[in-house]
Amino acid sequence: MELNLQELKQTEFPVPVELEDNIAITSLSQLYNWGRRNSLWPMLFGLACCAIEMIATASSRFDFSRFGFEVMRATPRQADLMIVSGTVTKKMVVPIVRLYNQMPEPKYVLAMGACASGGGPFKEGYNVVSGMDKYLPVDVYVPGCPPTPQALLYGMIALQRKIDGQSIANGDDVPWYGVGPAEPTPVPVLGPDIIDPRQMDMIRRQAESAAMEMAALGQRELPAATQMVAAKATTQEAVAAAPAEVDSDALNFVLPTGGTPWSEAEDIREKRRLRALARKAVRATRRAAETDEG
Length: 294
Ligand code: SF4
Prior knowledge:
binds iron/sulfur cluster; three-stranded parallel β-sheet
């Protein structure tokens, strides 16, 4: 809302002629919106190629300070406007939502370019979010790849017009004046893929049904030919893994007589140690016999 001084004079309230040049009558909403729309401070961060156009928009040729946007803040706590300028990767969406939560109300989000609006050329890519609106409430979308500085300016002016239409008397327009603190947007979790905590119930249900399907598959009888191949492979593995035969006399030499030493030595390392000791004992016996003969 650009403040039109002529309009302010045309009021239904009677103003003495001599005071017309000194008194302006307007609504609280208009005054409030006028203050907000002309001091939108964007947060200073860029994500990809679109950020270069955003920087150009701030430079002298286009100069978005003419519209009150010039104070780009390097901290979310002093910013009103988040310009998502570039490709939003699944890794980056986590800090973006965290930064958004740190911005004070009222706050706005502008999705700049095809990537931030819907994934752009990387849509459905393994590492790219298909639109910032999946995670944050976007107020204005600016199309283009990349959008020109003029397009970004147009988007910013569209945001100003949106603010003009808000009324302080309407709770839906200004929810930040509601009762109690606003709920923060759930921060996505980056695991093997990005997980939105708001969809956790659905993800859990899908995982449970998938697990049940897997269990049903596991219990199903395999075809006869597959069973034969599997049985043959198991037998060959068992033969290959069978321990080498050890002379029982040699074992008796090393181990205390009686009992079943192999069943007691469950641990595989223990079995190996005993086998090595047995071989050593056999060699020692042979050497002793050769000495006697000699
Ligand atoms: S929309 Fe185009 S220019 Fe902007 S970040 Fe994506 S690929 Fe780059």
